[in-house]
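Hi U.,

Before I forget, here's the chain from the pilot set. I'm dumping it here mostly so it's searchable later in email.
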Amino acid sequence: MPLKLSLRPGEKFVLNGAVVQNGDRRGTLVLQNKASVLREKDIMQVEEVITPSRRIYFPIMMMYLDENSASDFHDEFILRLSEFMSVISNKDIIDTCINISKYVIAGEYYKALMLSRKLMTYEDERLRDVSPIVPEDS
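Structure:
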């Protein structure tokens, strides 16, 4: 089944590891076969990996973008997911973690990636009202 992407002017996306940018007009791209595609909004940079849920998202993203090197990121994913699950008591979020793990085991990285966004939303909601600890001047 083909994948149809509608792109905004200048929108970037990753296609099988290559960063591609749309031109100055709205465009449509139709992929006729399986490919790893991530829109700019779904791409996380290393410097953005600053919370537990993002430490789960990032290795999944890397596995998706480079399936040949997925094993390089698998242990990091397992470690971060285990850490996250050890401090969560919300049954829905624990179920989400289990489903993410099932998708990763099955090699369905895109589904795992999109589901892991739910963890980031949950975490952001919990941390929204927490102010960062600022060290006192000595």
